[in-house]
Specification:
The chain is of the alpha+beta class. It is built from 12 helices and 12 strands. The strands form 2 sheets. It has a 7-stranded mixed β-sheet with strand order 6-7-8-9-10-5-11. Strands 1-2-3-4-12 form a 5-stranded mixed β-sheet, with helices on both faces. Helix 2 runs antiparallel to helix 8. It starts with 14 loop residues before the first helix and ends with a helix.
């Protein structure tokens, strides 16, 4: 069983929160990571959030949700805007006014830097244009990223048959193989979170990557499931006495017409039954039925597509281990313009860079 989640006392959801979330969901650069729910999640685990916005004719026109946390061994404080700010970057005046609001927030909280990772795709803004915007607004684009800047996005607008047909042949085969080998999928609930966490721990140990605490996954699910924006899907194998053994599980989130695959795991047994493919396909079907138009597989190596295709069979470090799996679902590789920093204290920023490099 899970213990009570401890963290910052949360204020009641307000009409202002609803207004902000509606703005985020409708914005072309909107993301789950800019919602009130994401701020609530991060506030429980060491971050503090603050929101700034601009209004035009009574409606929000631009804004940013900032997260604050100590960095560099607690010697400085940083601000972070995941998948934001939400602004028309081609409107220099609007961008400048919003940065003035961001500056006030940062100064009041005595942060040394603010790291931004806007959800602006390179296909919509060239690196040259982005470089010019950064120069105009005193931003430093040559910096590290927190969220993976490159991902694979599956188009959910076609029929399910057409979505399946667009996948790699091997992926279609594995989806069907899982069903033939007795793997079933179902929509989980809170009581399935311990099984999900156990699978996450096994995956982290097997593949050598860090995972969140059990309470983090519990909080992520509960906060977004409360508003119908989260689903926990499990792939199982029925055993004797009618018991079902969890083989794989994923947690998927939605915002507007977008779905996001953020967390996934599998056990060490029965892997030849391809439960990962079964559960991913179940989540894609679910997301389409929810009215989503895109399914974000969330994170692949930051390399050109030609390099990805040339090396995915022999590289397994970092995100390379998941690219082989994700590429099979027939999505489009997309990259953002990347991260950029706005610096308020140069000495503290050098400390931050030194710490991140280590």
């Amino acid at each position: 069983m899970f213990d009570k989640i401890l963290g910052m006392e949360e204020q009641a959801h307000t009409a202002e929160d609803d207004e902000w979330d509606a703005f985020v969901a409708a914005h072309p650069q909107g993301s789950l990571l800019q919602t009130t729910g994401w701020a609530r999640l991060k506030n429980r685990f060491g971050w503090r959030s603050h929101r700034v916005w601009l209004k035009r004719d009574g409606c929000i026109a631009a804004g940013a949700q900032l997260l604050y946390k100590s960095a560099a061994l607690g010697l400085m404080k940083m601000a972070y805007i995941p998948h934001g700010p939400l602004v028309d970057w081609t409107d220099a005046e609007q961008t400048a006014v919003l940065f003035n609001q961001i500056d006030h927030s940062v100064y009041e909280r005595r942060a040394a830097i603010v790291k931004m990772e806007p959800l602006v795709w390179q296909e919509d803004m060239s690196p040259t244009a982005w470089q010019a915007i950064c120069q105009q607004h005193e931003l430093r684009p040559e910096t590290d990223t927190i969220q993976p800047p490159q991902t694979v996005i599956v188009d959910l607008r076609p029929s399910l048959d057409d979505i399946l047909a667009a996948m790699k042949q091997k992926t279609r085969y594995n989806i069907r193989l899982a069903a033939k080998k007795g793997v079933t999928t179902r929509l989980g609930s809170r009581r399935d979170l311990p099984a999900f966490v156990q699978l996450m721990q096994l995956t982290g140990q097997r593949d050598g990557f860090g995972i969140h605490t059990p309470l983090y996954y519990q909080a992520a699910y509960e906060i977004f499931a409360e508003t119908g924006q989260a689903a926990l899907w499990l792939a199982e194998l029925e055993e004797q006495a009618g018991m079902a053994k969890p083989l794989a599980a994923i947690m998927v989130f939605t915002l507007g017409t977008s779905a996001y695959y953020l967390y996934g795991a599998s056990g060490n047994e029965e892997r030849e039954r391809m439960p990962n493919y079964a559960v991913q396909w179940a989540a894609i079907e679910w997301a389409k039925n929810q009215g989503c138009q895109t399914y974000d597989l969330w994170g692949i190596p930051d390399a050109p597509e030609a390099e990805l295709e040339a090396n995915f069979t022999n590289r397994h470090d970092g995100l390379w281990g998941v690219y082989r799996f994700k590429r099979g679902f027939g999505g489009q590789i997309k990259r953002t313009v990347g991260a950029t920093d706005r610096v308020y204290n140069n000495l503290a920023y050098k400390l931050y860079q030194w710490r991140r490099s280590r």
